[in-house]
Structure formats: structure tokens, C-alpha cells
């Protein structure tokens, strides 16, 4: 009997697995302040010595007009808002008078401000709500303020700070830039920066801290060309853009 050789299909040869290239570790964003407690105290002591009683730059005659001015200042300059509200606040310095003007008249008064149509609507609506829910008075809690039309966290913080003396931090574009550029309170969002500043600023400086930082960002530590040679904290500043404290940094072109 002939021997029958059984043939089987050879299994396909598997290619050797390539060694996986380990993923590059993600670059960590700075999460903590570059400054220790003593350095932070020194920064704010310097601001306090230079300007003990900083003031906001929005013109107002009472708490209500302050609230309206801050609402109108979104995506607008304080100078532009002051020009638009100069006459408005002469004729409508209470919620009742603002409601009596009506949306069309409010719109005409503030038409030089960006987004004036929507802002006029919100000004009327918040005035109505102040009358209906708060007896015509500006509320003193963040929750109640944020429930008003056109009022966000930053606006509420400004009103609480200026009108009622609360130690709040209102993070605008200037303060957000300062927190990250200096490494003082780095954060991806305004709320990140706000909460970190609340943790690190010495209590005795909290009342005016956001004014100092906003004014510093507006007039000295400018977005495109920080004026480090005029800066009162240049010797303390740890920003890589500080061309006074960091000789290796390139001086920005004006």
C-alpha cells in the first residue's frame, strides 16, 4: 500500500510586531505660581505703595449706574463707555428712570458702543428685574447679580468689589494676560486665574488687587509692548518677556 503523504496548508507567517514608540510626554502647562508667599507679598506691597487707593475707570453716580456701565463695557473701552453714558446717566440714574426711557431711547444714547442693540435690551431688562425682584436696589450677592440680563461673573465681581467692598477678583483681558505672562496665577480660563489669585493674594491686599493688576496690564504690561523700563515690579517679575530683569529677553518693538 502506497504511503500517502498528507499535505497541510502552512500557516501564514506573521510579521514581527514593531516595537511601539513610546508616546512623548505632554508638555505640562504651568499650574502653580512662580512666586512664593514672600515674593507675592512683595509684589502687592509695591503696588500698594505706588497707589494705595486705586479706582475703577468707569464713570458712575451710584450702584445702579455702576452696574449698567460695567454691562456696557463688555468688548468696549472704558473711555468709550464713559462718553456714551455721560448724558444717559444724567437723565436715567435709577432703574425706574431707565425703564421710562424705553429700549429705543437707550439704544440711541449708547449707539457709539459695540453691540449697542443687545446692550440696550439688556439694560432695559435688568432695570425691570431690579424693580420687580429687588425693590429697585442692586443686589449684593453674586448669584443674584448673575441672574440679571447681561451680567456675568466678571461684571458681578466688579460690582461687588466697587459698590460693596467685597474682596473679589474680576478677571478681564488685562488681568488674564498678567496672570499668565508673569506666571503669577497661570490658567487656561479667566476662572482658573481668578481662583488661583484668590488663594495666593495676601488678605490685606485682596480689596484692591484686581484694580492694581488691571491698571498694570492696561498702562504698563501691555499686550504687544510691555514697558518694563517703567515697571515698578520689574526687579521682582519672573516673566521671560521682562527685558529689564531678564537681559536675554528681546525688547519688544513699538
Brief description of this entry?
With 254 residues, this protein is mostly helical.
Report on the structure:
With 254 residues, the protein is mostly helical. It has helices spanning 37-50, 63-72, 78-91, 95-101, 103-109, 116-134, 142-146, 153-164, 173-181, 190-200, 206-219. Helix 2 (63-72) runs antiparallel to helix 8 (153-164) and helix 5 (103-109) packs across helix 6. The longest helix is centred in the middle third of the chain and has 19 residues, at 116-134. The model is unreliable at 1-14 and 22-28 (pLDDT under 50).
List the helices and strands and how they pair.
Elements: H1 37-50, H2 63-72, H3 78-91, H4 95-101, H5 103-109, H6 116-134, H7 142-146, H8 153-164, H9 173-181, H10 190-200, H11 206-219
Helix pairs in contact: 2-8, 4-6, 5-6, 9-10, 9-11
Note poorly predicted spans: 1-14, 22-28
Biggest sheet layout: none
Cα separation of the termini: 102 Å
Structural class category? mainly alpha
Query: Approximately what portion of the residues adopt beta-strand conformation?
Result: under 5%
Individual helix count: 11
Radius of gyration: 28 Å
Helix content: 40-55%
Topology as a string of helices (H) and strands (E): HHHHHHHHHHH
Mean pLDDT: 88
- DSSP, total strands: 0
**Shape designation:** elongated
Amino acid at each position: 500500500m502506497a504511503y500517502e503523504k498528507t499535505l497541510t496548508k502552512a500557516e501564514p507567517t506573521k510579521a514581527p510586531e514593531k516595537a511601539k514608540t513610546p508616546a512623548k510626554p505632554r508638555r505640562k502647562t504651568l499650574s502653580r505660581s512662580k512666586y512664593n508667599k514672600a515674593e507675592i507679598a512683595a509684589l502687592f506691597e509695591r503696588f500698594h505703595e505706588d497707589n494705595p487707593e486705586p479706582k475703577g475707570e468707569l464713570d458712575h453716580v451710584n450702584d445702579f449706574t455702576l452696574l449698567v456701565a460695567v454691562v456696557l463695557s463688555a468688548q468696549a473701552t472704558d473711555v468709550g463707555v464713559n462718553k456714551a453714558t455721560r448724558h444717559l446717566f444724567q437723565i436715567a440714574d435709577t432703574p425706574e428712570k431707565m425703564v421710562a426711557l424705553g429700549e429705543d431711547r437707550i439704544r440711541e444714547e449708547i449707539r457709539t458702543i459695540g453691540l449697542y442693540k443687545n446692550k440696550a435690551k439688556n439694560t432695559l431688562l435688568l432695570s425691570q428685574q431690579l424693580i420687580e425682584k429687588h425693590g429697585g436696589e442692586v443686589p449684593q450677592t453674586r448669584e443674584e447679580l448673575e441672574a440679571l440680563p447681561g451680567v456675568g461673573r466678571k461684571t458681578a465681581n466688579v460690582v461687588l468689589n466697587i459698590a460693596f467692598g467685597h474682596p473679589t477678583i474680576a478677571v478681564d483681558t488685562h488681568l488674564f494676560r498678567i496672570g499668565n505672562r508673569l506666571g503669577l496665577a497661570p490658567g487656561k480660563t479667566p476662572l482658573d486665574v481668578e481662583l488661583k489669585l484668590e488663594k495666593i493674594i495676601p488678605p490685606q491686599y485682596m480689596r484692591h488687587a484686581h484694580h492694581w493688576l488691571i491698571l498694570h496690564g492696561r498702562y504698563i504690561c501691555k499686550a504687544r509692548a510691555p514697558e518694563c523700563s517703567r515697571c515698578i515690579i520689574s526687579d521682582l517679575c519672573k516673566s521671560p518677556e521682562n527685558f529689564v530683569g531678564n537681559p536675554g529677553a528681546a525688547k519688544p518693538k513699538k
